[in-house]
Amino acid sequence: MPCYYISGDDHYLYDKAVSMITSAINLQLEDFNKAVFDDDNFSYQGFFNACEMMPMGSDKRLVIVKNITKINENDKKNVETYLNNPCKSTVLLILDFYDKLSFAKNLCEFVDAKRMDRNLSKNIIVADLAKRGKQISGEAVDTLLDYSNGYLTNVMNELDKLVFFDTSESLITNKVVENVAIKNEEFAVFELTEALGKKDADKVMKLISRMEKEQGTLSLISNHFRRLFFIAISSDATNASLASLLGVKEYAISKQRASLGNFSKMQLKKIYSLLEEVEYMVKSGQMLISNALYFLAFSILFV
């Protein structure tokens, strides 16, 4: 196809799509036949010239527009005009993680790069490990997906470590995953929220002791509970509309909605007020961030 629009929240799938399409068109002489545009070098005229240029020593040219965030309305209209009559010897890939060119979805071949469902992700993990002469237990693959928050980007990074952790053992066990894999920050916050909702004080303290060393933890926790509160009071709204309103991906809303049963609306309202109080004390110098995390955790446990 002359144009592909790739959108979603898993960077691994963007890379995979680019690799597969590049291979499929048998791109030759990349230095001459490939152009990449991002925020640093995008201009409509440069983009148009690259798309209209004839390939050299290759059947096709490849033009990639990569996750731009700065584009004016006039350039959007010009891109739309090009998409309605694209150059047949050029393959255009629009990578749109930030949804700035969403109008292009209906004018291109759409490639969905959102997080895959769990079963498909498991199959990909098992297949990738088989190529490396490794296997993974069912419990271990579930833990790995949890730690990676479902992102194959994170999964593949962790697999590289897990494969070489013990070269004498062909099976990757759950214990190995727990000892070696790093928990995605977003998953760690979900885990903390679950523990707080279930009043599991021991687990809460263990998680906080790990998370306090990471910058931005307080902000992550605050954003999580604020979203949880808005989801609770907007029970009739769809995940898609809430995701758009709150500026997050739909997957995050669906996952948070599943944890609403641990808190009542009144509890979430109290937590919302508590967050404002804690953030004010931190910003005004009345409380250290490390102390704020523990204060917040204990306060939510007894809300």
Our estimate of the beta-strand percent is 5-15%
As a percent range, the share of helical residues equals 55-70%
Structural class: alpha/beta
Q: Tell me about the biggest sheet?
A: 5 strands, parallel
Assembly context of the chains: single chain
- Give the overall shape, derived from the CA principal axes: globular
Low-confidence stretches: none
Rg calculated over all Cα atoms: 23 Å
Average pLDDT number: 90
Helix and strand element order: EHHEHEHEEHEHHEHHHHHHHH
Distance between the termini: 56 Å
Report the total helices.
15
Query: Strand tally, please?
Result: 7
Strand order of the largest sheet: 2-3-4-1-5
Describe, in plain words, how this protein is organized in 3D:
This protein has 303 residues and is of the alpha/beta class. It is 57% helix and 10% strand. The protein is built from 15 helices and seven strands. Strands 2-3-4-1-5 form a five-stranded parallel β-sheet, sandwiched between helices. Strands 6-7 form a two-stranded parallel ribbon. Helix 4 links the parallel strand 3 (61-66) and strand 4 (90-95). The longest helix is centred in the C-terminal third of the chain and has 19 residues, at 265-283. It is globular.
